[in-house]
Amino acid sequence: MIQFCVQCEQELRGRIDKRFCSDSCRTQYHNEANRTRNQRYNHVHRGLKKNYTILKTFAKTGKSKLQLRELILLGFETTKVTGVKLAKSGKITFELYDLTYRISDKNQLEFVKTSPTKSQLWPSDYSKKI
Predict the structure, then answer these.
(1) For residues 84 and 93, is the Cβ–Cβ distance under 8 A?
(2) 17 domain residue, yes or no
(3) Is residue 127 a part of any domain in this protein?
(4) Under 8 Å CB-to-CB from 18, ≥6 apart: which residues?
(5) Domain that holds residue 49
């Protein structure tokens, strides 16, 4: 029985279970098959990246409170976050990579912290556990 490449339909030679005539056909086939799935991930990642860029710009200026309306006009999407936590104070905090913020009753975005501290990255008792 003659078999053909799944991608380019060229006649296959060699093993009976071979599906592709070359590595380039195999790669092209899988890239096309995964394109729609990757587009969904890329769409989410673009939104996270845009939000991060907007917030990081303001964090560098030293501002601790920002008007949410102003951020939304710049393209900030409140639904694009990497984490949501309930703080000890009972307020909901949002995380976007290394930035943590909350939204106040006055529709202001308040930075809680802007980057992890050394102790959060490497606890001081870490070396004692080894």
Answers:
(1) yes
(2) no
(3) no
(4) 3, 12
(5) 23-121
Produce one character per residue of 64-78: b if its CB has 16 or more CB atoms within 10 Å, e if not.
eebeeeebeeeebee
> What are the pLDDT digits (tens) for 33-83?
888 778 888 888 999 999 999 988 888 887 778 899 999 999 999 899 999
Query: 95, 93, 61: which is closest to 80 by C-alpha?
Result: 95
Q: How many CB atoms lie within 10 A of CB 55?
A: 21
In sequence order, which ranges of the chain are alpha helices (DSSP H)? 23-61, 68-73, 118-121, 126-129
Structure tokens that stand for 24 in this block: 């380039």
Read off the tokens for 75.
Answer: 């393209």
d(CA 130, CA 119): 17
- Only one residue has tokens 């070396």, namely 127
Amino acid at 25: C
Whether 18 maps to a domain, the answer reads no
